[in-house]
Amino acid sequence: MASASWNFELRKHAPLTVGLLALAGVAWWTGSLSLQLAFATLLLIVLIALVVQLYQELFAVPAQPAPLETLLQLAQDREISALHADLAEALKRISAKPDPIFRRLALQSLQNMVDQSHRLAADTIEFSSTESWRVVYEELLKSPGLHLYRSVAYIETAHYWQDGPGQQSTQLNLQLHDAGTVNIERIAIIADFLWAKSDRFPVEPIQTWLDQQYRHGIWLRLVRESQLAGESDLLSDFGIYGSRAVGMQLADAAGRTVRFELSFDFERVKRAEDIWKRLQVFSTSYRDLLDQRS
Amino acid sequence: MSPRACRAAIEFARFAGEHGSTLYADEFLRYGHQALPGTLQSTYPGLDDWHGPHVLRDRLRNLAGAHPQRDVVFASRSASLMKFAARLLFRQCRNVLTTDLSWPSYDRLLNLELAKTGNRVRKIAILDDLLQRGCTMDELIDRLVSQYVANKCDGLFLPLVDNRGLRLPVAEIANQIRLRSELRFCVVDGAQAFRHVPLDLELEYCDFLIAGCHKWLCAHMPMGLGFVGRQPSSRVVADSLARWSRDGFLDDPLLSFSQELLTGEADLFGETAPVLPMLTANAAATDASSDPVCGDQAACRDIVQQCLTDTNWQFHSPTHAFQSRILLLRDKTGNQRSPLELRQHFLRHGIAVTAYDGGVVRLALPDQPMDVCSLSRLHAALNCS
User: Fold this and answer.
1) Which residues in chain B are closer than 8 Å to A207, comparing Cβ atoms?
2) Sequence-ordered list of residues with C-beta below 8 angstroms from that of A158, at least 6 positions apart, any chain
């Protein structure tokens, strides 16, 4: 490698060197002694400068190429490094397959993986069309150091959290709050057809679901969807886990999870807290609704 | 001790000695004196005030001025109810405002419960303002409400009357807070207030008020009382009481037993409960039902003031708005006798006082003007010291 660089540098500077030497020869034969001496001195200086530059270029430490830097950093994380090695091996095998249709499909699938990886890099994990997010939900609620869980329930169906997984999550909320492990507060955004203006409370089974939480001491606030007509960015279903993470849920008409996105990005947590504070302005405490009835 | 309570205690000792393990005892406790056979009724006439726990509950509710449908909880100790109330507070509140007037044991219980949660307590010092600086009612209310709002509190724990006799306008404070901020749960320490000053529970300013039977009710036997103050809190209190009794957090035997008697749900493996406090409380409540809560306080204070003339003692009192039937007297000479010495000095003259450091003693005035004999003893005690 060193001799190759040397040859490259020589070839780069050869024309200049030859030209200077030719010029020197002509001047030597045609000039006076003093001129010859001056020219020789100048030539010597130029040659020294060229040698110094050549030396610096040859022995300068080159910047490492990006892939190498990445590998070195990944090597510090054993688990990630192992995954990277497996992935690289798999990519090598995919690359060796010539079938164009397979290649197209593989590239699409790999691109999805890349997109998902970018989301993970942005501290976000997504669960699609599955209730398996509730496992992580439970893990977060029970995690040490979590003392406050603020939840916004966007209730567009009477079946909200009434299925098996939903009831289990409700029981988890009640147990943790009752034990004092986590303080839980909830704001319920309720679709107007589930809470008519003429009714003091929403329809069943939503009302029972809310009342059960209230009796366990969970601080509840309610707001009708129409009250947020000019604040569409407030219409969302999410939970803030302390200041650690925020989870956003999108459910279908039957109340089943379509997508659940969990983000550990602090900026997103802050934005969720802002939404929470704004929702508090529009909502009424369940206690106050009970007060009205009494 | 109230005369009826005294009679009930004596009669029950006889009854328990002779029929303690029989069905008669069980029927008597559940349904009252009238459930006993005629012969037993006439044998134990001192127990004829007892008509069962439901009637006791109604009597205490009446005395407290509570709504007829609000729950009343009984416990062996008011500390059990404070423990319960502290947990109720921190289940709903993140930041509770208290003052330096809180009874130290209750403060400790509050902090114990606080330590298990990620919540906060904001303690406001008002004792010096009330005793030394002549703070007015409006100033106090404004100060507490402002501090509540500024610190973003959402819960309140205050004594209605503290152990020094300082009476706080808790109803007004709670109402002002509700106008300016959110008050999720309000617990009031009424241990020194029940049968001393009006509890004003009909104003529905607090969610839970803790009281006792052995102070101003004169039942002698300690029994804690918890009054539910607001209808929306009823279900939270009732459900929480049931759950925390089942899971063992609340392990007060009288609390469990009285709930059994009131609800009819038996606990087959419950602990033996002291039932005498219920009987003496019932008897004292019967005596008290014919007496108004507040006698002429001003007249009683004036009489004591006269006794202080030409003595080394003076009132150590807040402004009139915060006064109650508890008086603090201070030795003007700065005599550094210990609290024990002071107490013994007054006991030698037949007067029971609570003594504090700095030559301060606490007297509880009766609701009726003192007779000549009592006044003479008081005058002698103040003169001799």
Assistant:
1) none
2) A194, A203, A204, A205, A206
Size of interface A-B (CB pairs under 8 A): 51
A183 in contact with B, Cβ within 8 Å: yes
Contact B118 A290 (CB under 8 A): no
ipTM > 0.95 for the complex: no
Test the B interface: residue of A177, A213, A215 with most B CBs within 10 Å: A215
Say yes or no: A294 contacts chain B, CB-CB below 8 A. yes
Angle between helices A206-215 and B231-246 (to 10 degrees): 70
Q: What are φ and ψ of residue B98, in 5° steps?
A: -135, 180
User: What is the Cα–Cα distance from B78 to B61, expressed in whole angstroms?
Assistant: 17
Tens-binned pLDDT, residue by residue, of chain B (385 aa): 888 888 888 888 888 888 766 666 778 888 888 888 888 888 888 888 889 899 999 999 999 999 999 999 999 999 999 999 999 999 999 999 999 999 999 999 999 999 988 899 999 999 999 988 888 999 999 999 999 999 999 999 999 999 988 999 999 999 999 999 999 999 999 999 998 889 999 999 999 999 998 888 888 888 999 999 999 999 999 999 999 998 889 989 888 888 888 887 766 566 677 888 898 999 888 888 876 655 566 677 777 877 787 788 888 877 778 888 888 888 888 767 888 988 888 888 888 888 888 888 888 887 677 778 888 888 888 887 5
Whole-prediction pTM:
0.81
Cα-atom radius of gyration of chain A, to the nearest Å?
A: 35
Angle at A227 between CA A225 and CA A231, to 5 degrees: 85
Q: Which two tokens stand for residue B135?
A: 């703070």
> Would you state the structure tokens that stand for residue B262, as one six-digit string?
């009131």
- Residue A75 buriedness (CB in 10 A; 0-12 / 13-18 / 19+): exposed
Q: Which of residues 283-342 of B touch A (CB under 8 A)?
A: none
Task: Please tell me which residue of chain A has the smallest CA distance to B230.
Answer: A291
Amino acid at B348: R
